[in-house]
Amino acid sequence: MAAWNSAWARQLLPPVEEAVEHTKLWWAVALVMAVGGGRRGRAAAAAGVTAMAVAEVLSNGVAKQLVERRRPPREWIPHDDVEDRPDSSSFPSGHTAAAMGFTSAVAPTWPWAGAACCVPAVMVAVERVHSGAHYPSDVAVGAAVGMVAAALVRAVPRLFVRYVRLRLRLRLRLPPPSRG
């Protein structure tokens, strides 16, 4: 993938990299969804932004601190897009984690918007390998981190509500709800 030296890739992928720097693309998509998508759009945007933040904390704040991995050698990249690479650990890809976290959290709430977000999310993953910033395994683990973040964002509120109800029931000494 990094050796892919097509004119198409060299024109399309650098703007993708620019759009996802500092999660600009995902914030813009969230704004469009929140403004134009009604209640569903606002819920999807909130879930996406929250999952993106969790994914970035897990990938950049936790995993990169635990795993020191050098970026792919410059000699492996035959094109000039290799010059602007971060100095941080290569593992995992934080850009991919944020993209997949956002997309995976949006999809259950608003499926067609989630499907539309898949295209730039995949392009982010391809760009990170093509630019020489990451190994394919960095991108794969980044995608997994993003999906875990989205699952956490969906599960934690439900678990919290169940916990609060249980505590309230115990405090008031109410019987468990009937199943029937």
Automatic annotation (TrEMBL):
Alphabetized, the UniProt keywords read: Cell membrane, Hydrolase, Membrane, Transmembrane, Transmembrane helix
**Location, primary (coarse class):** membrane
Annotated SUPFAM superfamilies: Acid phosphatase/Vanadium-dependent haloperoxidase
Q: Name one Pfam family in it.
A: PAP2
The annotated regions of Basic and acidic residues compositional bias extend over 73-87
Which stretches does the entry tag as region Disordered? Answer: 73-92
Asked whether the UniProt record includes DNA damage among its keywords, one would answer: no
Instruction: List the protein's name.
Output: Phosphatase PAP2 family protein
Has keyword Zinc? no
Superkingdom of origin = Bacteria
Q: Which residues form the Phosphatidic acid phosphatase type 2/haloperoxidase domain?
A: 47-154
Q: Where are the transmembrane segments?
A: 139-161
Topology in membrane? Multi-pass membrane protein
- Where is the protein situated, by its record's location annotation? Cell membrane
